[in-house]
Design brief:
CATH architecture of the largest domain: 3-Layer(aba) Sandwich
CATH class of the largest domain: Alpha Beta
Strand content: 15-25%
Largest sheet: 7 strands, parallel
CATH superfamily of the largest domain: Glycogen Phosphorylase B
Number of strands: 12
Number of domains: 2
Number of helices: 10
Structural class: alpha/beta
């Protein structure tokens, strides 16, 4: 049996889905499973993280430009087609295929997996019918129709692994295995008093207005605010919020320790779409975390994980695979 882990990006890209997929693949390999990592040669966020010791299949795809809608849709279509062709030619009976929710069309790959006699696990990182509202607030009727399609398709997977409890899919085949850290932070380092930092993407799943207001409150208390990341809303920040581009994982780790306060953003209007993966790196530092835009089911999830005494463990994946 081979476990195929499919998503849009591969090493050395630093998209969270790529990092988590590599972590899972490495962990499963160390536990005796045969693992193959599969993805496209596109780029989300380049980095210099260590190369995982995994068998990789790099699929040539059309590379879009991040932030440009039509270009991104074209890239989504290209990688979806490449993943589908891979499944139809490489997956064997009883193989396990773990597919992340990037690109969004990957939700329908279960048909090809079943045609090959494989077992499909959908790794639900983003619930797109809700996430789409961060890009455009479309009518509630259209949202119900899209959510209905999404949920029916998710129900056809053998398992759906949700990365948080607030994601708006609650089928009987769903289980929660929360994400963990994406960085090896090393030993504790001292912080710089009065420094507050935000890490990673600032995009469609975040309320810019609420985030800026949260930063303004900290600024009035004497804090310096720095955003170390990217995304479509990062360019809209006011000039008193400093932006920095991180070129290496080593720098990113250093800034995680340097910040006295870590900022985590959300959007109160799309509480069932995502849960910020950056939370777990900040949680591991033990620094004060200041959330903005958390409400409803996302706020409930925040309160729940804040009460956890242990970090999420990849061992939960082993337990899941054994039940299958």
């Amino acid at each position: 049996m081979t476990i195929h882990i499919l998503n849009q990006y591969l090493w050395p890209d630093c998209a969270p889905t790529a990092i988590y997929a590599d972590q899972l693949g490495t962990f499963l390999k160390r536990n005796g499973y045969r693992v193959r990592r599969v993805g496209g040669n596109g780029e989300y966020r380049l980095g210099n993280r260590p190369q995982p010791d995994l068998e990789e299949v790099v699929l040539p795809v059309w590379k879009g430009t991040r932030g440009r809608v039509l270009s991104t849709i074209k890239e989504y279509h290209s990688i979806y087609g490449a993943l589908d062709r891979y499944i139809r030619s490489e997956v064997c009976s009883h193989d396990v295929v773990i597919v992340t929710s990037a690109p969004p069309q990957s939700i329908s790959l279960i048909d090809s997996i079943r045609d090959r006699g494989g077992i499909g696990i959908y790794w639900l990182q983003d619930y797109y019918p809700e996430l789409l509202r961060g890009f455009v607030e479309y009518p509630s009727l259209a949202r119900r129709i899209l959510s209905g399609y999404w949920n029916r398709t998710l129900e056809s997977w053998n398992r759906v692994v949700k990365i948080s409890g607030n994601l708006a899919y609650h089928g009987e085949n769903a289980t929660i295995i929360r994400n963990g850290t994406t960085l090896d932070l090393g030993p504790i380092q001292p912080f710089e008093p009065g420094l507050a930092c935000y890490f990673g993407n600032l995009g469609y799943g975040h309320s810019l207005e609420i985030f800026v207001e949260s930063c303004r409150e900290l600024r009035e208390k004497g804090y310096k605010i720095i955003v170390l990341g990217d995304g479509p809303k990062a360019s809209q920040l006011p000039p008193w919020i400093e932006r920095k581009k991180i070129l290496s994982e080593r720098e990113l780790i250093a800034w995680h320790w340097k910040a006295e306060v870590h900022l985590v953003a959300a959007d109160p209007n799309i509480t069932g779409a995502v849960f910020p993966s950056k939370y777990w790196n900040s949680r591991l530092t033990g620094r004060r975390i200041v959330p903005s835009g958390f409400a409803g089911s996302m706020l409930e999830e925040w309160r729940y994980v804040e009460g956890l005494t242990e970090m999420p463990s990849l061992q939960e994946w082993i337990s899941l695979l054994k039940t299958m």
